[in-house]
Amino acid sequence: xxxxxxxxxxxxxxxxxxxxxxxxxxxxxxxxxxxxxxxxxxxxxxxxxxxxxxxxxxxxxxxxxxxxxxxxxxxxxxxxxxxxxxxxxxxxxxxxxxxxxxxxxxxxxxxxxxxxxxxxxxxxxxxxxxxxxxxxxxxxxxxxxxxxxxxxxxxxxxxxxxxxxxxxxxxxxxxxxxxxxxxxxxxxxxxxxxxxxxxxxxxxxxxxxxxxxxxxxxxxxxxxxxxxxxxxxxxxxxxxxxxxxxxxxxxxxxxxxxxxxxxxxxxxxxxxxxxxxxxxxxxxxxxxxxxxxxxxxxxxxxxxxxxxxxxxxxxxxxxxxxxxxxxxxxxxxxxxxxxxxxxxxxxxxxxxxxxxxxxxxxxxxxxxxxxxxxxxxxxxxxxxxxxxxxxxxxxxxxxxxxxxxxxxxxxxxxxxxxxxxxxxxxxxxxxxxxxxxxxxxxxxxxxxxxxxxxxxxxxxxxxxxxxxxxxxxxxxxxxxxxxxx
Amino acid sequence: xxxxxxxxxxxxxxxxxxxxxxxxxxxxxxxxxxxxxxxxxxxxxxxxxxxxxxxxxxxxxxxxxxxxxxxxxxxxxxxxxxxxxxxxxxxxxxx
Lengths: 485, 95
Known about the structure:
The complex is a heterodimer. Chain A contains 15 helices and eleven strands. Chain A has helices at about 10-15, 25-35, 50-60, 105-110, 155-160, 175-185, 215-225, 270-285, 300-315, 335-345, 350-365, 370-390, 415-420, 425-430, 460-475, and strands spanning about 45, 70-75, 115-120, 165-170, 185-190, 210-215, 255-260, 290-295, 395-400, 435-440, 450-455. Chain A starts with 8 loop residues before the first helix and ends in an 11-residue tail after the last helix. In chain A, the strands form two sheets. In chain A, strands 4-6-5-10-11-9-7-8 form an eight-stranded mixed sheet, with helices on both faces. In chain A, about 60% of the residues are buried. Helices cover about 35% and strands about 15% of the residues of chain A. Chain A has one domain (about 1-485): Amidase signature (AS) domain (Amidase signature (AS) enzymes, Alpha-Beta Complex), CATH 3.90.1300.10. In chain B, about 15% of the residues are buried. Chain B is flat. By secondary structure, chain B is mainly alpha-helical. The two termini of chain B are about 45 Å apart. Helix content of chain B is about 35%, strand content about 0%. The chains are: A alpha/beta, B mainly alpha. The interface between A and B is large, with 70 and 52 residues.
């Protein structure tokens, strides 16, 4: 057989089920790929011995009825994994070994998969380029000078480079969809509450959602099916019956109404992004969908709202890192207060500190109404824009990002220009809606670009179906040369 | 509104993060550019808008206040930077 890793998750699962490849052979192939891809810096931790043991156990007693039979998977290092170091890309958790397993990873393992390693990410998922990680920049397999997007940059890089057959990320303002767009892969942020947040290192709790990152839409449906579900340990988990997204995947989208929001444009947006959007519209129209112009008038206020809400929640969530119960503790500091201050100063990186300070300020006495309360009101308006539009449409089509992957270092000196990268992805998090990014084409440099499909609350199946039909008719093929090995 | 160095030092104190004197300048510049961006929200009149407090159409569930695990002291202390047998240890607080 040719390269067994250069295939979709669905094909790999078929190969395992039909015994064309064993779990051990598969795992060994990924170990080899990962070992020859150190230049990408996608992994913080590898768990090869444990993975090979798990593979052997599966091969000795295989259960082919599982959704992910004998499949090795690497996951973002934001998911707590029992007895395996979990860093969240931060120095402050450099020595943290959880004594529990996150619900999402547990769900994946219960469906037959096992851990291959932990993937690099922006520190506490704060970043759009994987340049804020304490463990160094991750490189985009598309080009050796390019960022892989962020914050799930290790996930997107590893997936596109065949270092894992599928993976999971988290998305607070675009951290799954933007890296997927930058690497020519598929990424889905589910409805808020569909996937348990229990055991995920928290960033902004009213926005954080875990989701799948995969090579194809079908793979995305398989992963979502495996990871989602009610969890009583997460008080915002939605109590509903599990869906069979992969079994119910259909490519007939005739008659569906697709909204095209006029506000999803920015100044100086490369014309390829516009052209790609036009191409996307045409494909859906040719498949029998109806295009409807809509307006989401508060779109331009989504990012400023996000940069109040997310840092405010982060400043509260990250108050727990004080050097007392776990994580890094500074050796300096004469008394308790000084120990806290030094620990947090040495343990956190610049971007995380910046956001904690913004959050502390907007919540501080005398400023709460002007910032936090104001933002919560605008958030209501943004949600209402979507609610009103969804009365007459089934889904929304937009570009995923205003540009393709940028160069390492290009935006690090200007936080606001970095934040602007998430302009098309952030509104969805504020409204709690599901959205996926799917690869749709390349720009003139040959770098991948994605389109985003936004769905109604809990309407993941519909956007997956639209994506499935789109994928079959789009003709995108991710041409990545393995320059790193 | 603009943030000056003194204000930033005060906020850093509230956040329990010590900030190097050398870095205050660049931090002030960055935070001011971020706040300038954030303050676009002031263009909107929101007097009659209710703040959004939950995006779920359900209220938070509560559970019974019961111990569901317990007896896991070792697990809890396992990651502490400094401990003795039963406690987390911090620098001396009371003379």
